[in-house]
Amino acid sequence: MKSQSTQNTNIITLKDKSTVALETNDLHVYYGDNEAIKGVSLEFEKNKITSLIGPSGCGKSTYLRSLNRMNDEIEIAKVTGEILYKGVDVNASNIDVFEMRKNIGMVFQRPNPFSKSIYDNIAFALKRHGLKDKNELDEIVETSLKQAALWDQVKDNLHKSALALSGGQQQRLCIARAIALKPDILLLDEPASALDPISTAQVEETLLELKENYSIIIVTHNMQQASRISDYTAFFYLGNVLEYDDTRKVFTRPKIQKTEDYVSGNFG
Ligand SMILES: Nc1ncnc2c1ncn2[C@@H]1O[C@H](COP(=O)(O)OP(=O)(O)O)[C@@H](O)[C@H]1O
Ligand SMILES: [Mg+2]
Residue limits of the ABC transporter domain (predicted)? Predict the structure, then answer.
């Protein structure tokens, strides 16, 4: 039996704790009797992109969703352990989830713009958070669209329906919508899996630009994508993280055979 304090050498931790954007400690997630996440402890670095990879059904989405309490919406889900953001446990019962999600935003697998104009897709959440000033709204809509690399394509059509955009544009609109609230951390669950290669490349470029201002955690089943864009990679297997390290190391010199088998495409 390993003691609780034994450091798993296959999971890196950050030397300078001031660079930790978010961390989980012994996180477990249960759906009824099914333990989908079995005690995951990870530190995510500020202004970096971290990929969560692993075979389907291993708990990547479950883990990601727990980071901003999306599992609250699933009745049978139960989450134990700590999720620390700026020294505060996001998983504590007294957390204002609506406010917390302003800091820890999320983009989903399928682009899910509201059936509203491009402008209103972004302004909606801002208004719900109390922003009324038209000039300020205009300005945030513009900067968010610029950051999501969509502005040039939509600036003359801001009042057209978001549903008229291509899939890749819709997904970048969803990214713009998420960053309009100026979160610190952006969670993305396979944001390019429903997109064609050109749109995928655009979303990847957007994420690389965004990491200047955001800490990004992304689930991807696309190995090339993980190695192209992420600084760190965590390999999930059956509800555990087997290996967490610099992306380059995970892909070229993994410490564990299972990781090697997975990244080289032997199973998945
Ligand atoms: N909403 C849910 N209700 C019940 N079980 C779920 C739910 N979502 C996921 N699970 C289960 O949790 C496990 C991990 O799933 P998931 O987090 O979706 O994995 P991944 O994203 O790696 O494919 C699976 O056994 C899955 O069936
Ligand atoms: Mg998933």
Answer: 22-263
CA-wise closest residue to 45 among 13, 89, 8, 9: 13
Ligand 1 in reach of 31 Cβ (< 6 A): yes
Which contacts of 128-135 are long-range, i.e. CB under 8 A and separated by 24 or more positions? 129/102, 129/181
The answer to whether the beta carbons of residues 107 and 186 sit under 8 Å apart is yes
Assess whether the C-beta atom of 59 lies below 6 angstroms from ligand 1: yes
For residue 56, give the amino acid letter.
S
Residue spans of the domains in the chain: they are 17-263
Q: Are 245 and 237 in contact (CB under 8 A)?
A: no
Q: Which of 27, 28, 30, 31 to mutate for ligand 1's pocket (most ligand atoms within 8 Å of CB)?
A: 31
Q: What is the pLDDT of residues 124-181, one digit of tens each?
A: 989 999 999 999 999 999 999 999 989 999 999 999 999 999 999 999 999 999 999 9
> Residue 128: what residue type?
R
184-229 tens-digit pLDDT: 999 999 999 888 898 899 889 999 999 999 999 999 999 999 999 9
Cα–Cα distance measured from residue 116 to residue 151, given in angstroms and rounded to the nearest whole number: 17
CB 144 within 8 A of CB 177: yes
Residue whose CA is at the smallest distance from ligand 1 atom 3: 31
Ligand (nearest to CA of 77): 1
CATH 3.30.70.120 fits domain 17-263: no
